[in-house]
Specification:
The chain is α+β, with helices and mostly antiparallel strands and 93 residues long. It is built from 2 helices and 5 strands.
């Protein structure tokens, strides 16, 4: 599956993402959890520490917006994604 990712207000990832705030990513799987696991695999500990809490779920301080209109709140890791979706990750302000 191929999705477009945006990272806003997350300076902790500035160096890890080589100053890119937006990029497309292909990953195996269907859920946001699958995507997150692939991001951690690709970018390592910095991505894990920026996005996940101690239980391995997306930290509640991180806002996740699907296609610019749907804020993902509950059961975010299980959210089914579609090819071409845009996910915006926003740090707490």
């Amino acid at each position: 599956m191929n999705v477009h990712l945006k990272f806003n207000g997350m300076p902790i990832l500035y160096k890890t993402l080589k100053k890119k705030k937006e990029f497309a990513m292909e990953f195996p799987g269907k859920t946001l959890g699958d995507l997150i696991r692939e991001l951690v695999k690709k970018f390592g500990t910095a991505m894990k520490n920026a996005l996940l809490n101690d239980k391995g779920d997306i930290d509640m301080e991180i806002r996740v917006v699907l296609n610019g209109k749907e804020y993902l709140i509950e059961d975010r890791m299980e959210k089914l994604l579609n090819n071409g979706d845009t996910l915006t990750f926003m740090g707490a302000s």
